[in-house]
Amino acid sequence: MDPECWDRLVTLHARVENDLSRALQRAHHLGLSEYRALCHLATAADGELRMQELADRLGLNQSSVSRLVARLEADGLTRRDLCANDRRGVYSVITDTGRARQTESAPTYREALTRSLAAAATEPDLAQLVGALTGTARV
Question: What is the pLDDT of residue 87?
Fold first, then answer.
């Protein structure tokens, strides 16, 4: 891969993540990782995932996901549950409040993503990359 292309991708990713984070925090007092955790839990069977599976899906280590889940629990958005088959296994389970918060914040996420990519598409260094990601690349 071309290192310059990779650098543009990293730049685009950082800008979009920053925009998403600010929008979610401002409108819903929710961090980006918290939002993504709620999304994964909301779409999981029975609204629950083992802590390690949630960590894997978020790209976090066990310690980081434990702190993340603790914040979600403190806000009443998730709760922990023990695995019935393996008492050592711990699940994070989305609550009704967590589902509601994820549902209400999803439009903010989508709108911020759309705005951020549209802004990046106006920059010559990023336009082609954004086009490839959104399917709007011009040949």
Answer: 67
Quote the DSSP letter at residue 47: G
Minimal CA–CA distance to 23: which of 13, 11, 35, 12?
35
Which residue, among 3, 94, 6, has the nearest Cα to 54 in the 3D structure? 94
Using CA atoms, how far apart are residues 68 and 85, in angstroms rounded to an integer? Answer: 25
pTM over 0.70: yes
Could you tell me the two tokens for 24? Answer: 């979610």
**Ordered alpha helix ranges (H), the chain:** 3-28, 32-43, 51-58, 62-74, 96-121, 124-134
Distance CA 118, CA 15 (A): 12
Cβ–Cβ < 8 Å for 69, 51: yes
pLDDT digits (tens, 9 = 90+) for 28-54: 999 999 999 999 999 999 999 999 999
Per-residue model confidence (pLDDT) at position 52: 94
Nearest to 136 by CA among 113, 110, 118, 109: 118
